[in-house]
Amino acid sequence: MDILINSEVDIPSSDISNIKNDTKKILNILNLEDAELSILFVDYNKIQQLNKQYRKQDKITDVLSFPQNEGILSNININILGDVVICYPQAIKQAPDSDNTIYEEIIVLIIHSILHLIGYDHITTKDELTMRKKETDIFMKLFN
């Protein structure tokens, strides 16, 4: 299991270490022990730029997922899940709305993104309920 974490914003190094450890636990819960994943923390400007470039939405979002298993290169390495890009200031801003600590909010975003990377979505109400239940189940296993 290989998890690469980079940050373009200031995050405490102890948080980076804990994020890496908890991400490994998330992947284990999902039986993805051999998976590879990269996580990048960015600011508002960068997340808006990426959202506009790749999703054609010129607005800030909290997290973006870029699956590796799409497109013409999808069969190169099936263990590479993809990339997760988290807007750190947005996570800070929205954590109180969810009654989460900043760290918990980051973990929620990582869980959400990993589920997207493995094929979950929330386009329909049924899919959203399924995905939200899975997110909650993983979060509870992680923190209980």
List keywords for this structure.
Collagenase (Catalytic Domain); alpha/beta; four-stranded mixed β-sheet; 144 residues; 4 strands
Strand content: 15-25%
Total domain count = 1
Please write the CATH class name.
Alpha Beta
Helix fraction by DSSP (H/I, runs of at least 4): 40-55%
Silhouette: globular
The main pleated sheet reads as:
4 strands, mixed
Q: For the CA atoms, what is the radius of gyration?
A: 15 Å
What is the average per-residue confidence, as pLDDT, rounded to a whole number?
92
Order of helices and strands: EHEHEEHHH
Question: Termini, distance in Å?
Answer: 23 Å
How many H/I helical runs?
Answer: 5
CATH architecture grouping: 3-Layer(aba) Sandwich
User: Would you identify the regions where 5 or more consecutive residues have pLDDT less than 50?
Assistant: none
The CATH topology, please? Collagenase (Catalytic Domain)
The structural class is alpha/beta
Widest sheet, order of strands = 1-2-4-3
Per DSSP E runs of 2 or more residues, the count of β-strands stands at 4
**Corresponding CATH superfamily:** Metalloproteases ("zincins"), catalytic domain
Task: Tell me what the structure shows.
The protein is built from 5 helices and 4 strands, in the order βαβαββααα. It has helices spanning 13-29, 44-55, 88-94, 102-117, 125-143, and strands spanning 2-7, 36-42, 63-67, 80-87. The longest helix is centred in the C-terminal third of the chain and has 19 residues, at 125-143. Strands 1-2-4-3 form a 4-stranded mixed sheet. The protein has 144 residues and is an alpha/beta fold. The chain has a single domain (2-143), classed as Metalloproteases ("zincins"), catalytic domain (Collagenase (Catalytic Domain)), CATH 3.40.390. α1 (13-29) links the parallel β1 and β2 (36-42).
